[in-house]
Amino acid sequence: MSINKVKAVGYPLAAVFDVNDQKSFRMLILWLEENILHTYVPEKRTELQNIDSPSWDIAFKNYCESHSSPIKTTEPIDQLEWLLGVAIRLIYNKQKNKFDSETKKTLEVSTDVPMIIPSDNPIDNLDVNSSDFKEGIEKLADLLNISKHPDHKITLKAIHKFITKRLNEEAIKNPSTILPKGEAFPLEKVKGHKIESKDPTVLHAMKVLRLAQLHRLRDLQTCINECIVAMQEVTSDPKTDTKLGKVGY
């Protein structure tokens, strides 16, 4: 069971409460009855007050029946869970306005002020919009020869992509695996549908994008070819069992 319910009802011994300890369990039941539930009149609580009595369990069973408990199991812990729920509901109903007001204040504070969770990780405490952070990204982009974007966060994503692909452990050990192969293709020879512009800078950028698109299409076609080959290995290799063949009827 959750100890939070025991704390919610204001039980003074919640810190040392042990649900598996018989005496601790019985003391909590008695405290709930005397301070919150008030199912019995004081004169009728004698059997519950005698927590060392051998017949206390029978008294507790009768007490739950007096409460019209819907719990069908015979486990005392299940009954306690239900009684704690009843107690919490009674406390709320008596102080509904107070709790509603406190809840409203909490929600207003939580929506106006962002929740700050302390962290020992220095990266979590970085101000990504500070001038120092932006300057650091620009210096790193210059060092890696990466074009800068007006949004420094996009530049940071490009740096991250470059480092993870080109400067990982495997790439450093074997650079030939990530270096482009073949001769460089001159942009002047790039031709495509509607690649026209009077501005040479714009035309240059359009040709680069065209080459990037062709490269992605080539990768896609390679993946499709690999799928076709894998399927053919399964479907185009029939095996014949000659033992099943027969001649005549």
TrEMBL record:
InterPro entries cross-referenced by the UniProt entry: RTRAF
Q: What is the official name of this protein in its record?
A: RNA transcription, translation and transport factor protein
- Organism per entry: Aphis glycines (Soybean aphid)
Taxonomy-wise, where does this protein's organism fall, top ranks first? Eukaryota, Metazoa, Ecdysozoa, Arthropoda, Hexapoda
